[in-house]
Amino acid sequence: MAAVGTLSYNGWKMFLVFMCVFAAVNCDDKVPLVVWASDGYALSPANAPSSGHTVSVDELGSYLSRALSTSPHNLLLFLQDKLSVEDFTMYGGVFGNKQDSVFRNLEGALRSSSSSLWLPSVSSTAAASVSTLLQNQIETAPLYMNPDTLAQLRLNASVAALLVFRLPYSGGADVMMSAKEILSGNDEVIGQVTSIMKTQSVPYTAVFTALQPSRVVEEEVSLAVRSVGSRSLLQSRRGESPAAYPPVEFKEKGSSCILMWAEKLVVSLYRSEKWERHDLASKTFGEGVTPNLNGSSCNETHSRLVLNYEDVLSFRSFRLIFIMNQRHYKVSARRWFTMERVQLEYDGKKASFNGSRHIYAPAEYSYHCASVSSSNSPQLFPHSAKDNANEWQISFHDLQIQGFNVTGKDFSYASDCAAFFTPGIWMGLVTSLLMMLVLTYGLHMIMQLRTMDRFDDPKGPAISVPQTD
Fold first, then answer.
1. pLDDT at residue number 296
2. How far from 191 is each of 43, 110, 160, CA to CA, in Å?
3. Distance CA 253, CA 312 (A)
4. What is the DSSP string of 50-81?
5. Alpha helices, DSSP H only, in 139-280?
6. Residue 333: other Cβ atoms inside 10 A
7. What is the pLDDT of residues 7-35, one digit of tens each?
8. How far apart are alpha carbons 116 and 135 in whole angstroms?
């Protein structure tokens, strides 16, 4: 989040600590910008932009115009090659190690200034045009120089001047100096320039920024709902490789109509008094893997995804079939799709599992579940007591499937199988309720206690308490 305002030196120290926290998460094209005036002058206060906002070229021009309306028009522009807010937190000694700070002269200049302007999130395009913006403000051409040249130049406080000092930056392994050493050297340049300006008694306004960021902070791509038909649980962080493998996609007449993805597709057969397991994921997903979808079909009300395999658990032909239906339900006044059956067909035999009671989602959504199984917390049940499914177990890990209203290659918003009240939540609620009941009962009993209205007097006669009425 960008922050703008008139701050004291204490505000500068807090800024160093929290700059990266309040900066925009995606810093790949954003740089910080600092403006301050010499001692005795103040910048015009400015309102902070909204949270997470990146300052554009026009907005930067507006901020600079407002700040320069009450500050000296002798401008010092310290333009570094690269700079990011992380440089302040990493090398600014903001965690109590002030002796390790490489920005001592910058801090000293801010300490002597009565106000400062902070823009932690400025677009690199705007930062690159800051020289032009300042030139337009005072209507004079920039002068590129170094501290030695400035020491020989006699400035006039009444004549506006734009002095530009280019500062390097490097953090690579192919140079002799580290980024910390170069930043420290740049800070020394700032200190020399401000000392010369103070010696010549010339008031000034200084700007410190960079042409591009020194670090790129990856943005965590949220699983946000872009629209009803656009969310995908297979998104990944930008800059990294996408999901391990794309989903299975079945097309009808050139348009996608079924999508399915899973981390594991495990089928198990009880044979010779033991369970024999086989994971079909390696034959279904992955680079260079093209599953055989012969027999698949889809229309507005029925979808059938058929995955054909060979040599699975010693069976020459093996098919895993997902059968889905869509219909309108009057109670909810909307259309839902259900996983009617999951079938295994192997060498002419068939095993059917019913999933309609547990696997369902709104028709325009996809269905997602971390575990779909016929054994542990089963969502799939054998179609009948005599069905061959009683000899099989199937388990799908991180399953996501959509059989209707598919747009493009991305899943729609996912309806997750996790219930709102999980067993752990119910256990916590019941335990809390029992504790509240015990506490209420204890308070009620305490409130019923009555003190005695008569007491024994050791110097007087004993109290006689009749045993009968």
1. 93
2. 21, 11, 21
3. 31
4. PTTPPB-HHHHHHHHHHHHTSS-SEEEEEEEE
5. 147-152, 179-199
6. 7
7. 444 554 444 444 444 443 444 478 888 88
8. 20
Lowest mean pLDDT among 80-94, 213-227, 442-456: 213-227
| Nearest Cα to Cα of residue 267 among 360, 342, 348 | 342
User: How far apart (Å, rounded) are the C-alpha atoms in residues 102 and 265?
Assistant: 56
Contact between 391 and 270 under an 8 Å Cβ cutoff? The reply is yes
Whether residue 177 contacts residue 132, with contact meaning beta carbons closer than 8 Å, is answered with no
Q: Coil, strand, or helix at residue 223?
A: coil
For the chain, the 3-state helix, strand and coil shares in percent, each to the nearest 5, are 25, 30, 45
What are the start-end ranges of the H helices in 200-303? 281-284
Alpha carbons 303 and 312: distance in angstroms, whole number: 25
Contact 301, 288 (CB under 8 A): no
Distance, CA of 367 to CA of 360 (rounded, Å): 7
Q: How many Å apart are CA 204 and CA 76, to the nearest integer?
A: 7
CB 180 within 8 A of CB 91: yes
Q: Which residues pair with 402 in a beta bridge?
A: 259
Strand partners, 209: 79
Q: How far apart are CA 69 and CA 422, in angstroms?
A: 61
**How are beta strands 274-279 and 142-144 bridged, if at all?**
unpaired
pLDDT of residue 218: 42
Per residue in 445-457, pLDDT (tens digit) is 999 888 776 666 7
- Encode 115-141: b = buried (16+ Cβ within 10 Å), e = exposed: bbbbbbbbbbebbbbbbebbbebbeee
